[in-house]
Design a protein that fits this description.
The protein has about 210 residues and is mostly helical. It has a domain of about 100 residues: 50s Ribosomal Protein L17, Chain: A (Alpha-Beta Complex), CATH 3.90.1030. The chain has 5 helices and 3 strands. A 3-stranded antiparallel β-sheet has the order 1-3-2, with helices on one face. Helix 1 crosses helix 4 and helix 3 crosses helix 4. It is elongated. It starts with 13 loop residues before the first helix and ends with a helix.
C-alpha cells in the first residue's frame, strides 16, 4: 500500500525514473524549454528547481552535487555560468508549465516546461502591450505638448526680430504720416480763411 506517498512513479522503477528526470533536466538546461507530458513536466519541476537554487552558490561542492544528479558536464557548465546569472535575483519559481493540445496517438495531456527568464514570447507580448498603452496615452500628451512647446519656441526666436522691426517701422513711417497731414491741413487752413473773411464782411454789411 502507498500509505499517503504522493510521489508519481510515472510507471517506472526508481532507477529508471531518476535517470529519465536527470536526462530531462539536462535537456531543459541546454535548450531552455522542452515538450513532454503534463505528469512528467510536473515531476521535472520538483526535480530541477532545487538544482537551479544550488547553482547560485558556485562552489566545488555545489558543482559535484549537481553533477551527481545530471551526469552531464556541459549542462553543469552552462547552469553555473549562464543560468545562475539570470536567476540570481529570482527567489524561486524558475520554471513555467504551459499546457498544450493532447497527443494524437494516446490522447495524453501534453505540456511545455521552460525557464521563466529565457522566455521571449511573453516578454515581447508584454512589451508590445506596454508600448501600445504608452502610445495611446502619449498621443494625447503629444497633441498638447507641441502647442505648449511651439509657443515659447516661436516667441523666443521671433520676438527679438519682431521688436527690432516694430521699433524701426514707426521711426520710418512717422515722418511720412506727419508730413501728409501737414500738407493736407495747409490748404484747408487757407480755404477756411477766405470763407471766414467773407462771412465777416457780410455780417459787417448787414450790421451797417
Amino acid at each position: 500500500m502507498r500509505h499517503g506517498k504522493k510521489v508519481n512513479h510515472l510507471g517506472r522503477t526508481d532507477s529508471h525514473r531518476k535517470a529519465m528526470l536527470g536526462n530531462m533536466a539536462s535537456s531543459l538546461i541546454l535548450h531552455k524549454r522542452i515538450t513532454t507530458t503534463l505528469a512528467k513536466a510536473k515531476a521535472l519541476r520538483g526535480y530541477v528547481e532545487p538544482l537551479l537554487t544550488k547553482s547560485k552558490s558556485d562552489t566545488t561542492h555545489s558543482r559535484r552535487i549537481v553533477f551527481s544528479y545530471l551526469q552531464d558536464k556541459d549542462a553543469v557548465t552552462i547552469l553555473f555560468r549562464e543560468i545562475a546569472e539570470k536567476i540570481a535575483s529570482r527567489p524561486g519559481g524558475y520554471t513555467r508549465i504551459i499546457k498544450m493540445e493532447n497527443r494524437l496517438g494516446d490522447n495524453a495531456e501534453m505540456a511545455m516546461i521552460e525557464l521563466v527568464d529565457y522566455n521571449t514570447v511573453y516578454g515581447t507580448e508584454a512589451g508590445k502591450a506596454e508600448k501600445k498603452s504608452t502610445r495611446r496615452r502619449g498621443a494625447k500628451g503629444k497633441a498638447t505638448a507641441p502647442e505648449t512647446k511651439a509657443a515659447p519656441a516661436a516667441t523666443a526666436e521671433v520676438t527679438p526680430a519682431d521688436d527690432e522691426a516694430v521699433i524701426e517701422t514707426p521711426v520710418a513711417e512717422a515722418p511720412v504720416a506727419e508730413a501728409a497731414p501737414s500738407v493736407e491741413e495747409a490748404p484747408a487752413a487757407e480755404t477756411e480763411t477766405p470763407t471766414a473773411s467773407a462771412e465777416n464782411e457780410e455780417n459787417a454789411e448787414k450790421g451797417e
